[in-house]
Amino acid sequence: MGTVVVVADVDAAIMTATITPAAVSATSSRDRHSRRRRILGMIGRRLLFVVPVCAGVSAGLFAAAAASPFDPLVSYLGARYTSTSEADKAILAEQLGFDQPWYSTYLQWLQGVFTGDLGTSRTFGQPVAQVLTERVPWTLLLAGTGLLLAAAVALVLGVAAGMRRGGMLDRVLTGLCITVQGLPPFVLSLGAIALFALGLGWLPVAGLSDGGADPTVAGVAEHMVLPVAVLAVSQMPWLLLVVRESVSASRSEDYVAGALARGIPDSTVTRRHIVPTSLAPFVNVVGVRLPELVVGAVLVEEVFSWPGIAGAVVTSARDLDMALLAVLTVGTTLAVMIGSLFADVVAAMLDPRVATDG
User: pLDDT digits over 160-198, tens only?
Assistant: First the structure.
């Protein structure tokens, strides 16, 4: 009887040893499937807010413009504004629709958007779609290059500082981040122009090309150096500090100490364990900082006379060019929301600990 028990125990142990890997695999597969469903649910919930948020932002913009003390006829008439009689101003306002209630103007604009007609920019004298086609690619080039440069440098330096927290490199980088973080992008832009363009003469001051010549790849690349560098430096402090903190926290985890104790090289532990766990907070912060990136890009474009949407934003806001201003505002809101959602999805895919109920 004892022998039977032993055999039964051995058989049970064999069965357990045989079944466990499959059971673990099935459980892991179910967990991954459940995780994917939760991520898809998060995407769906976030997308449901896109339309009402954009509608609220656009309606609030038209209401705020109507309450604004600025008269759109100032930009329309220019120097003739002071010499034009009030009666003529009233006639012009009626002809241009400036005398309509804001909600009436808003509904007309909304109807045009749904029918594919974005309207005509009064300031530029062009269809809004043409203004966007000419300017948005330059803004995407500048902002995208600046963000990629900031992310790459912040990741490298943040890992280096976090691995040797308290060292000389960590103290220098932390001090620089705190200093740069308190400087607005336009101050950095003016300082860069004064030093590298006017002082040293290494780089051009502004624009896409020299002397109004047609833009070339080499010329645009040369003129991009300063604005891209300024935009990257202005976005780098938060990214670098987050990587530093995340790497420092991961380095103190038990599994890292165990890996080092087993003789695994420090570079291997950093590359395979510490850096991957630090990417999720890093990506999340990139998404959170997107609004600041948009504002920084606008300021940098203005200082460097970059032909992006910054000039269109400033001009349309000054002249209350609602057809253009509304599209730019809603487009910026949409870009920030989609970019933030993308960053959250990537963070959730990188780290299973990231919540997906937002």
Answer: 888 887 888 888 988 888 888 888 888 888 899 999 988
Global model pTM greater than 0.90: no
119 with 112: CB under 8 angstroms?
A: yes
Give residue 148's Cα distance to chain centre: 11
Q: What is the dihedral of CA 73, 77, 80, 84, to 10 degrees?
A: -50
Task: Quick: pLDDT tens for 214-224.
Answer: 778 888 888 89
CATH of the domain at 233: 1.10.3720.10
The domain of 295 spans 118-350
Q: How many CB atoms lie within 10 A of CB 330?
A: 17
Residues 6 or more apart whose Cβ sits within 8 Å of residue 350: 276, 279, 280, 283
Say if 29 falls within a structural domain.
Answer: no
Helices 290-303 and 322-350, axial angle in degrees (round to 10) = 130
| CA distance linking residue 151 with residue 155, whole number of Å | 6
Domain count of the fold of the chain: 1
